[in-house]
């Protein structure tokens, strides 16, 4: 009789066990170990401070049943007597992190025809993602990860990325009081840049269908160690540059809801990839109108995905004061030209509410964030 009671009690406890996917389990353990981890995408404090902190979605893991010591009769009675029924365990709520979605939006071409700085931010993000954490004992603030980049307009420059990587490493050496100009140091820098570039995976689809096919095949590509050398690295971000370049073709497609259908299909695939690869998704686009910073596509994201929309535009030069003479204007022209040549761009979060109002990046041999301390 005692065996029957124990068997029924065991069956009841087994019925209360909830199954979790490996991703859910790993996310739960990660959340328990690092409950207050800051969202890190750019790995630059001034830019990461602008991002929304993902709101964890609760998942439930049954608590271990408390053990009680009973006699044989007690076990049978507890299994059959509703008044003394073994209480069901109260599920423990564990927070599961969602992966950030970031839209980089610049003004429309008619309002702001010159480059607006979105691709520069992608270069900066990629630099910190693919570099190692240190080189020759010098901290580089790298994440030792990989980046997947979809670049339909060929705006992303590998040669400029190499320059940005090199500039960042040299600045880190200088900050650490190390000489980056010695032959040995230069060889180490070149080798580090070369290795980092191997973990940037660039695809250049020429049409919307090609884009969807590329997204569909990404998992097979990334999980095939024979196709690349990044198997030992996590994917830090999936970046889609200039998503709005496909809008004209979508508008000519049959059906009045072609863009909304395409948007839903795109976000579903990105949602799946973000979860599978445990990576952030970054999409760049020009704004649909000059009145606000909102892209033509995607029209919306699934509600469980945590979206941050960052506006990016060139820092405008203050116009000449009314009534300024030609001589005064000529005197200021050189200073204005110097300001323009610096390539300064401002970034802020649409909707506000960030820890800071925004940041300014400067584009030269590399991409850097301007700081008050220089």
TrEMBL record:
<feature type="region of interest" description="Disordered">
    <location>
        <begin position="61"/>
        <end position="80"/>
    </location>
</feature>
<dbReference type="GO" id="GO:0005815">
    <property type="term" value="C:microtubule organizing center"/>
</dbReference>
<dbReference type="GO" id="GO:0000400">
    <property type="term" value="F:four-way junction DNA binding"/>
</dbReference>
<dbReference type="GO" id="GO:0005657">
    <property type="term" value="C:replication fork"/>
</dbReference>
<dbReference type="GO" id="GO:0042148">
    <property type="term" value="P:DNA strand invasion"/>
</dbReference>
<dbReference type="InterPro" id="IPR030547">
    <property type="entry name" value="XRCC2"/>
</dbReference>
<dbReference type="InterPro" id="IPR027417">
    <property type="entry name" value="P-loop_NTPase"/>
</dbReference>
<dbReference type="GO" id="GO:0000724">
    <property type="term" value="P:double-strand break repair via homologous recombination"/>
</dbReference>
<dbReference type="GO" id="GO:0033063">
    <property type="term" value="C:Rad51B-Rad51C-Rad51D-XRCC2 complex"/>
</dbReference>
<feature type="compositionally biased region" description="Basic and acidic residues">
    <location>
        <begin position="70"/>
        <end position="80"/>
    </location>
</feature>
<protein>
    <recommendedName>
        <fullName>DNA recombination and repair protein Rad51-like C-terminal domain-containing protein</fullName>
    </recommendedName>
</protein>
